[in-house]
Amino acid sequence: MGSIEEPNFCQKNKDLDYDVLIIGAGLSGIYSLYRMRQLGLRTKVLEAGGGVGGTWYWNRYPGARFDSESYSYNFSFSQEVLDEWNWSEHFASQPETLRYCEFVCDKFDLRRDMQFDTRVTAAHFQDDTKSWLVTDENGQKYTSRFVVTCIGILNNYTLPNIPGVLDYKGEAFHTARWPAEQVDFTNKRVAVIGTGATAIQVIQEVSKTVGHLTVFQRTPNWSLPLRNAPLTTEEMDKIRSRYPEIFRKCAESWHCFMHVPDKRSTFDLSPEDREAFWEELYAQRGFAKWMSNFGDINTSKEANALFSEFVANKIRGRVHDPVTAEILIPKCHGFGTKRVPMETRYFEAYNQPNVRLVDVKSNPIECVTESGIRTKDEAFEFDMIVYATGFDAVTGSFTAIDFRGVDGVKLKDRWSEGPRTFLGLFVESFPNMMMVMGPHQMFGNIPRSVEYAASWVARFIEFCRDRGITFAGATRQSVLDWTEHVHTCAVGLLANDVDSWMTGVNKNLAHKQKRIIARYQGPAPGYRKRAEEVVTREYRDLAERFLVQDEWGKEQFSLDGLPGAWIPYGGGGFMCTGRHFAKQEILGSVAIFQSYYKLEMVDRPKGWLPRPDRRFYGVGAMPPAEPIPFRIRRRRRGI
Ligand SMILES: Cc1cc2nc3c(=O)[nH]c(=O)nc-3n(C[C@H](O)[C@H](O)[C@H](O)COP(=O)(O)OP(=O)(O)OC[C@H]3O[C@@H](n4cnc5c(N)ncnc54)[C@H](O)[C@@H]3O)c2cc1C
Ligand SMILES: NC(=O)c1ccc[n+]([C@@H]2O[C@H](COP(=O)([O-])OP(=O)(O)OC[C@H]3O[C@@H](n4cnc5c(N)ncnc54)[C@H](OP(=O)(O)O)[C@@H]3O)[C@@H](O)[C@H]2O)c1
């Protein structure tokens, strides 16, 4: 429990191993550690992998690369890094991106505070010490005041729920756990299951050297040419001089990409002009074709159908066999309703005699056998099976850890009906825990969101450090309000009518069959505006809002002078009773509350003594049998 008189945050953590424990050493963990260093806090990163990079450490499959422009993906926080790092391609490959992550870590000597090969299995909030107890898979324990999760939205991979997957005796790989050693495809009969963004990259690459490739497709995807190209030193220098403009564009854009959206409607143009505009877009690099398109292709079924047909015709023009072309054209979802995979000669791969497409919808896979795959109609023999079957996305990394908050509440129970968060950063009953790239944050071009979220968290921890606040978390009301806002932002977007990892569906997982709102889908500038307002209000949303609903409506009380009765509640929260409150409510974030208000005891219950070491009566003490009447007084600002 923080106290105003004793602001030495680190001193209060002296019995704990760390001030801040970060889980994960991908981009989120790297930047979070950098910021914690700047605050002078004792910080440790625990990482399951053998090195830094997260996504770029694990996904070493052939063809893995960005769909974000390399120079809009990289960190913006260090001018030195921007000056020193050169990208060799507009859309860098996985090995180069991994080298970039390592370069940043070396530059700031970050590995010194990182512990690899350490998978966290449990994180339990300790009500008595207001701290976290984190356990790794070897049983090693770590205590920390704050936990910052940087565990990724696309990290926990899933194998297909096809019988016999473990019976197969040949080489088998999931793309997200690809070995570091070179894998050879020459003269081999290779199967790829899946046709998402990962599979598309694998297929177009493997088809260059494979003996024979069979692709098992359940759902086709709208895929567009990436138009990657090498970058010369001169081009890179020009890009470097444009970094401020690139990051400004990303900051202004809805999804944090550098592409400027077209404000017109699809129907503002004649069919001829529209076609000409789409041809221009189609010729551009990367996501321009999606992000610089008319916004209504994301909201209007009619507009979406027109652009989908434009893309379908491109596919028909590239795939020689019309039957194969039609199987490759999505019929059940419109363009852009799932994250659009970018490709380079993907469709042309199907023109090769040694590449075959199997439509799993009409010819379902029955099982994986010891030597291959059996479908309803055919038995296939393979030397290698590649599973490009996706992830237990967004919430998977969280449910893989036994997270328990105040009073032992389980995170998976808190989120049983889908994620409920405040700003995608906090979860009710999980004080002192913040999520970088948690659910309900902005996704899109992810490093822009990572930098913002990690910076928000750092500023908040700095606020706590400076005031000696050692207990802080979201209130129920703030979580309800934010979750409602996230759901409101999702209304009307066609993407929410489609099963995908972005709507929380993974057909291989029994508990992920229902669509949820997993991400913030309003404009990124709108997200940041709201998050900045919380900062401007000096985080009072984390303390005050929960106090201000009465039982007759939603009237807001001024707290000053309000009588009430407060009962210390396990975990540092408080329950509030009294005529102004509909029912007993658990109040989180008392420490922040306390920096704005003080409680004056009205009648001291018999035998009840304030603890001399604590300004806030009763905290940490056994709850008294009777509520203690208090009067709430506003403190002067600035204390
Ligand atoms: C193949 C692929 C390509 C992508 N391309 C792009 C792109 O072009 N543009 C874009 O914006 N985004 C892209 N993404 C999304 C990508 O995940 C993010 O851009 C970014 O790398 C996320 O960084 P992160 O640190 O938040 O998460 P991650 O990179 O996923 O890192 C999370 C880390 O946490 C660790 N971890 C998780 N659980 C535990 C645990 N229990 N104990 C210890 N450690 C744990 C993991 O091992 C991992 O290292 C891509 C994703 C994939 C899979
Ligand atoms: N930068 C890039 O270019 C890039 C590259 C790779 C990944 N990513 C990111 O990572 C995300 C995830 O991509 P991903 O391709 O790894 O996963 P994904 O989009 O979830 O695709 C998984 C694929 O596997 C198929 N599949 C899963 N289980 C199956 C089963 N039992 N039987 C048959 N098919 C099955 C799916 O079919 P259904 O659709 O029918 O379920 C789908 O085609 C992307 O959306 C993107 O954000 C980016």
UniProtKB/TrEMBL annotation:
Q: Which GO terms describe its molecular function?
A: flavin adenine dinucleotide binding; heme binding; iron ion binding; N,N-dimethylaniline monooxygenase activity; NADP binding
Q: List keywords of the entry alphabetically.
A: FAD, Flavoprotein, NADP, Oxidoreductase
Cross-referenced InterPro entries: Cyt_P450_sf, FAD-binding_Monooxygenases, FAD/NAD-bd_sf, Flavin_mOase-like
- Pfam families for this protein: FMO-like (PF00743)
Q: What PANTHER family does the record tag this protein with?
A: DUAL-FUNCTIONAL MONOOXYGENASE_METHYLTRANSFERASE PSOF (PTHR43098:SF5), L-ORNITHINE N(5)-MONOOXYGENASE-RELATED (PTHR43098)
Q: What name does the UniProt record give this protein?
A: FAD/NAD(P)-binding domain-containing protein
